[in-house]
Amino acid sequence: GAGVSQSPRYKVAKRGQDVALRCDPISGHVSLFWYQQALGQGPEFLTYFQNEAQLDKSGLPSDRFFAERPEGSVSTLKIQRTQQEDSAVYLCASSLSGGRAYEQYFGPGTRLTVT
Amino acid sequence: SQQGEEDPQALSIQEGENATMNCSYKTSINNLQWYRQNSGRGLVHLILIRSNEREKHSGRLRVTLDTSKKSSSLLITASRAADTASYFCASSNFGNEKLTFGTGTRLTIIP
After folding, report:
1. Which contacts (CB < 8 Å, 24+ apart) does range A26-31 have?
2. Of chain A residues 46-105, which have a CB less than 8 A from chain B?
3. Which residue of A103, A105, A110, A111 to mutate against B (max B Cβ within 10 Å)?
4. What pLDDT, on the 0 to 100 scale, is given for residue B3?
5. For residue A104, what are the CA distances in angstroms to A3, A12, A35, A46, A96?
6. How much is the pLDDT for A5?
7. Cβ separation of A41 and B2 shorter than 8 Å?
8. pLDDT by 10s per residue, chain A, length 115
């Protein structure tokens, strides 16, 4: 079946531009996660949703970062006024769970480069 | 910030040999998972071990967990060229599903 998909796969933004990254989770997966991965590092947690509820946004680095999942399926991560330090791969993952930790299924990521 | 430290940071071995990677973490965990990442297939779940388990096997993979030492190890037996990838441990705490990843081990299998 279809896995987690993300779009765009690559995004180049000029410093100061706003960007929107999309994630389509596996159908029926309750939980959805966003992670940020810098080059040569492990992914770092940004935020997560159970259905449409954003339960934890402690990892969002600043108020320029905003995520939503209005209908409990597709999610969008928005970054306003991008800065060079925002350059990274943004990974989305989903899992069946709903409270209990299960394995997470990751999308291919969106590589954001801010120039 | 990343909770886990992995060692070694990089490991190169001959095809057919066994590879062992270690992971340490800082706080109490609900479970610990191992993931593989390569450019072709992205980040893929390998195995999950719960805090009340000490050892788990899946095919050529063997994972151990020592909660008293806050450490885990991943053993890959009879390595293959296709095992070349970065390997990450990731932990989750009770009551929260988010994963805290380690720094990763870059494994290279020499044919």
Report:
1. A26/A1, A26/A2, A26/A94, A26/A105, A27/A1, A27/A2, A27/A73, A28/A96, A29/A94, A29/A95, A29/A96, A29/A105, A30/A95, A30/A96, A30/A97, A30/A98, A31/A94, A31/A95, A31/A96, A31/A97, A31/A98, A31/A104, A31/B97
2. 48, 56, 59, 91, 93, 95, 97, 99-105
3. A103
4. 61
5. 11, 27, 12, 15, 8
6. 97
7. yes
8. 589 999 999 999 999 999 999 999 999 999 999 999 999 899 999 999 999 999 999 999 999 999 999 999 999 999 999 999 999 999 999 998 765 568 899 999 999 999 9
Q: What is the pLDDT of residue A100?
A: 59
B2 has pLDDT over 70: no
Whether A7 and A74 have beta carbons less than 8 Å apart is answered as no
